[in-house]
Design a protein that fits this description.
The complex is a heterodimer of chains A (234) and B (259).
Chain A (H helix, E strand, L loop, with lengths): L2 H13 L4 H13 L1 H20 L9 H18 L3 H15 L6 H27 L21 H22 L5 H27 L4 H22 L2
Chain B lengths: L7 H8 L2 H22 L1 E8 L5 E8 L2 E6 L3 E8 L9 E2 L3 E5 H4 L9 E8 L3 E8 L2 E4 L5 E6 L5 E6 L3 E8 L2 E5 L6 E8 L2 E5 L5 E6 L5 E2 L9 E3 L4 E6 L5 E8 L2 E5 L1
Parallel strand pairs in B: 2-6, 2-8, 3-7, 3-9, 8-10, 9-11, 10-12, 11-13, 12-14, 13-15, 14-20, 15-21, 16-20, 17-21
Antiparallel strand pairs in B: 1-4, 4-7, 5-6, 16-19, 18-19
The chains are: A mainly alpha (234), B mainly beta (259).
Chain lengths: 234, 259
Amino acid sequence: MNCEKCQDLISDYLDGSISQQDRATLSSHLEECLHCAEVRDDLQSIVGFCCTQRGQYVAPPNEKALWLRIRNMIEAGANVDAPAPAATRRSFLRNWTARSWELSFPQLAAMVAAIVLIVSLTTAVGLRRWQSGDVNPQAGLPDSGLSVGAIDVRKRVSQQQQLISYWNQRVEYNKARWNPQMRETFDRNLAVIDQAVNDSFDSLSKNPHDEVSQEMLNTALNEKLSLLKEFAEL
Amino acid sequence: MIGMLPTLAETSHTSLPRKPALFALVVIFGALSITTALAQQHISRRYPVRNNVRVELKNISGTITVESWNRDEVKLSATMESPAANVSPRQTGDGLIVDVMADNRGRSDIGDVNFKLQVPVNSSVDLETKRGQITVNNIRGGLVRAHVSSEGDIELNGISASQVFAQNLIGNIFFDGEFSRGGTYQFQSGKGEITIRIPSDSAFSLVAATPTRKIALGPFWNDGFKSLGDGRKYVGDVGDGRSSVMVTTFQGSITFIRK
């Protein structure tokens, strides 16, 4: 017999309402198990006390508080029998909050380093999105038109430069496979576009509201992007 | 010192051994030329098509020449510099597609492939090359598109299409033709002269821009034109402005000529 089974039967054992066989088995367990024997002794003394007093016991000083405590204890016992996941969550939270967070110096240093890293990454990503105008770069692909209108040139240039940088890397990667004639052609054409881009930037530095230069810059950047894309697939 | 200089006889004597060397060089050069000529591949194919067929050609390097004829068929001739080059035209429901880029993907340098296409006069042609000249003669279909990604002249003669797009980076663009009512015409060069030759009664809405300020509208100039950016851009209508024309060059001139 195990302790659980024993404690279930103790009450009936004291009342004398169990079978001879169970009584024999329980007695032998109580002789061996001190814990169950103590439970039996406690319960026996409570039953004995109740039998002798017959309801004439002296009330405790704060009976209401006592009953409240008992009720709380019963409810707490009932929750223990609740479904396992909820109990696990509660115990985890309770354990986590109740845990004493005494960290060693290396643990503390690692935690600080992790926090600094997370904050830095979040800031960098945020800045990057902010600088790019929080716009999908694909939306800035060339539309082959000249009309720029009210489009913010700086934002557009920034978007274009990012794309240009990406395609430029791809071109550099493939360039070794081209014949010398093709390489010369590419370099010569890129120089023409860069010249147009620089001229437009020069004009805009003198007159930032020069719409013709804005349009030229836009067209030149689109051309540069097209050239890089065309040659990246070679 | 004088005695050490070679005499005339000695000089001519010393030049004698050069003759066989020269002869050998000529032989080698000739042999190389023959080898090169033999190495070049030439294909010629004909495709029966309807008269308003659409022909798409994407080349890597080499010239493209398109001419019209009064037959409902396309004749494609190609000369390939490298024998390794592959050209596999595909006939689709409404046209013919030649994609040299796709046909030779994964191969190393295939050199120039020079095309000559003969197409029905009402065809639409969409031509692309990374490098090389594009010439289109006498097409009266819906679309004429000539795009040179880098350098190469574009010459469009006798064109009467409702949509014309000509674009290159280094090279001149010449257009000789008509602007159709409601048509769209775009000409763009990075470094090159753009010349447009059209009938005197042409009607179009124009946007022409070049930082060089070299815009000559000639007989098509009128007081309705607006100059922007100190003469770097002109916007205005000629006639009833029934077609849309856009011309841009970064380093070059824009010239309109009457036919």
